[in-house]
């Protein structure tokens, strides 16, 4: 099982939308996907309610979970309020317990996609230490750009100290307003400073994406003409990501 973490230490950048669409994309490649929702807001769990496993995400951290039933296609481990307790837990116990759980279920799934909370803490640390890949969506506003250095420091700090096999897939511009001069300038600045980390694709700020999430389907399957461009952008991005994963 290959594990992909969707991470950014800022809320509102579209991590859940990317996580859910990544799971759908891999499923359509004929892969079995385990999606872990580590954010107590539980947006990914709500969007993919039809795929719930019956396992709560807080159970991933106690070291006793030995199996998760593969439902076929996508299987979701649902976020719960007890996840907040993980932030106060002992790292020496929680980190190996989470990794032990993923190792125990790895033979039953092809991929694991992890939707993470919008701040650094134990849940994000556990996910990055156990992962093979990490992808960072970013919204092109002033505060998100300011947070890039912190985000990169976190990812490469984890890679250096705890998980040398962690591969940074890159930064994915998300919710781009094509008519915003400020966002275009921010994108140009990103390309100038972080070209080596940028994914050469972008996803626009389109109403069809949250509409697809509410319907529980990927945007490229939404039967509306307005969703066509969003679907093209999403599929282009995931094709590039797939190539970077060596698939």
TrEMBL record:
InterPro entries: AAA_dom, DNA_Partitioning_ATPase, P-loop_NTPase. Residues 1-167 form the AAA domain. It comes from the Bacteria. This is Chromosome partitioning protein. It comes from Sulfurirhabdus autotrophica.
């Amino acid at each position: 099982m290959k594990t992909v973490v969707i991470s950014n230490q800022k809320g509102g950048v579209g991590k859940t939308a990317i996580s859910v669409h990544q799971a759908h994309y891999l499923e359509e490649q004929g892969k079995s996907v385990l999606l872990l929702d580590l954010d107590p807001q539980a947006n990914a769990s709500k969007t993919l309610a039809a795929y719930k496993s019956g396992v709560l995400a807080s159970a991933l951290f106690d070291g006793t979970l030995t199996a998760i039933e593969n439902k076929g296609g996508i299987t979701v481990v649902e976020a719960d309020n007890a996840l907040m307790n993980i932030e106060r837990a002992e790292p020496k116990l929680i980190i190996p317990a989470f990794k032990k759980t993923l190792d125990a279920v790895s033979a039953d799934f092809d991929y694991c996609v992890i939707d993470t909370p919008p701040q650094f803490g134990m849940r994000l640390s556990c996910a990055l230490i156990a992962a093979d890949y990490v992808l960072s969506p970013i919204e092109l506003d002033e505060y998100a750009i300011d947070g890039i250095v912190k985000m990169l420091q976190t990812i490469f700090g984890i890679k250096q100290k705890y998980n040398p096999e962690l591969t940074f897939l890159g930064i994915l511009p998300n919710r781009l307003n094509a008519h915003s001069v400020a966002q275009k300038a921010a994108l140009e600045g990103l390309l100038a400073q972080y070209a080596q980390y940028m994914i050469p694709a972008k996803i626009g700020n389109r109403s069809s994406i949250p509409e697809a999430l509410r319907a529980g389907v990927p945007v490229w399957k939404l039967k509306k003409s307005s969703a066509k461009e969003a679907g093209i952008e999403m599929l282009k991005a995931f094709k590039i990501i797939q190539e970077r994963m060596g698939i």
